[in-house]
Design a protein that fits this description.
Sigma-70 family RNA polymerase sigma factor; 2 domains; elongated; mainly alpha
Amino acid sequence: MNSYNNAIDRLRAEWPLLCADPLAGAAVTGWLIDAGVLAPGEVAGDLGAVLPELERRDARRGREHTDRWMGALLRQVGAGGQDGQLAARVVVQAMLPAATSTVYRMRWLGHDLDDVVQAVVASLYEVVLSYPLQRRPRRIAANLLMDTVCRARGELRADACDLSGDEPLDDDRLMIPDPGVGPDELAIRRQLAAAAAASGLPGLDGVDVEDLTGSRGRVVELLMWALERRVLVPGELAAICDHYREGAPRDEVAAQRAGVRPEGMRKRRSRAVRRLAAAAGRWAEQVA
């Protein structure tokens, strides 16, 4: 996502400027001290130190800690004024990695990249500014992301909860595969399944929503990313998919059908796998 010259890049670029303002750092630190999240003098009073420290504590203490400090900032958002704007900006910055991942995944909905970025960032701000803290004091980060996705899809004229279409409503492919999958995640998976089926890659023509869970779902996302970004040419990706798909023929059989030598087929496939593996780190950064 680092190549995007858009709203996300602008937020990233302006953040160091805000961190350099000692008044902003003192205000945010003061709110967190008042809420019992931080102790006086525990963290340097600048935003550049506060957010990373909160993230480290989140990793150790879990969601309840996240709810405490996000709740403290969202209470300031509700108070309005300049303090409310500052608090909202800090929450937006904290949510930016999740928003960036959301932008990448929502591209499967078929919209222009800049439109998706703009919709996600604008929706994130709106959700932060209007978050009903008293009614939803727990799982704040997850709620912010879910509401952002739903609102952004609305901006992009896509109904996140509409499962209608040309298929009958009792078709198993339209069912949520498990209780932990919400309508927004399901919609993204359905679009990814459609992209996979349309790619023409071997073994992906029958991929379905239920197939896109866990590691298999991540592999399909990686393959679609590599195809879109032209990390590999379609023939190289097809060679990988054809070899690893269920029921794939032995190399000798596949080579005979293609009119090539098995050794040459294996070498070309190995090169393609190495190139895909080398690029996987870039993909992981974008969807993390």
